[in-house]
Amino acid sequence: MTNDDFIGLAASYSYAIALLLFGEGLGRLFHVPPNLTRKIIHVGAGMWVFGILRLFHSWEIGILPFASFILVNYLLYRYRIVKAMDTDDSSPGTVYFAISVTLLFGLLWRPSGPVDNVPIAVAGVMAMTWGDALAALIGRRFGQHKYHLGSSVRSWEGSVTMLLVSTTVIFLVLLLLPSSLLSPLAVTYSFEKAVLAAVVSGAFATLAEGISPHGTDNLSVPLVTASVVWLFNYFYV
C-alpha cells in the first residue's frame, strides 16, 4: 500500500463517520424524521463512489471501504446504534447496498486497464442511490395509487419517479464518466447509445425495485442495472 492509499482510506472512513454524525445531528437537533435522515445518508454514501474513483489507483485497495462496511452496516442495523438510520420498517438494506457496490466495483473497476468498465458499476450504484431514494420519498408523500407485484406494494407515483430519475442518472454517468479524470480508460458512449442504454436499464431498474422484497432492492437494483448496461454494450454495435 502507498501513502496515497492510506490517505484514501482515511478520507473514506472520515467521510463515513461525518455522514453518520450529520444524519444523527439532523434527527436530534432539528427533529428530521428517520425515514428522511436514512435517505440522506443513503444518497451521501452512494455519492462517495466518485471520491473512491478519485482517491484510489488500485481497485483491490479501493474496494476495501465498501467491503468493510458490509460488516459495519450489519452491526449498525443489528444493534440500532445510529438512530438516523432506524425507521419503523428498517431492513438490512444498507448491508445489501454495501454488498452490491463491492461486487460491482470488484468485477468492473480496472483503473490500470486495459479497459475500465467502472461507468457500468457507477450507473448501477447511481440508479439505486438517487432513483430509489427519491422514489421512496415521493411514493411515501404523494403515492395515492397503489399496485401489487408479488408480495411488494408500490405506488405508481413512486415507480414513475424511479423510472425518470434512474434513467436520467444512468444517462449522465454513461455520457460523462468515460474518458474523464475519474475513468480515463473507459470506452466512451455516443449520445444516442447513452440514451438508449439509460432508457432500457432504467426500465429494468424500475422493475427490479418494484418486485424486490423489502430492503433487497438495494441489492437487486444496482446488479440488474449494471447487468443490463453490460449486455446492452455487448449486443449494441
Folded structure, characterized:
The chain is mainly alpha-helical. The chain has helices at residues 3-30, 34-55, 59-62, 64-79, 93-108, 118-142, 156-176, 191-211, 217-235, and strands at 146-149, 152-155. It has a two-stranded antiparallel ribbon with strand order 1-2. The longest helix has 28 residues, at 3-30. The protein starts with a helix and ends with a helix.
**N/C terminus separation:** 39 Å
Let me know the average pLDDT: 92
Q: H/E element string?
A: HHHHHHEEHHH
Q: Into which percent range does the helicity of residues fall?
A: over 70%
Determine Rg (CA atoms, Å).
17 Å
Keyword list:
237 residues, two-stranded antiparallel ribbon, globular
Concise description?
The chain is mainly alpha-helical and 237 residues long.
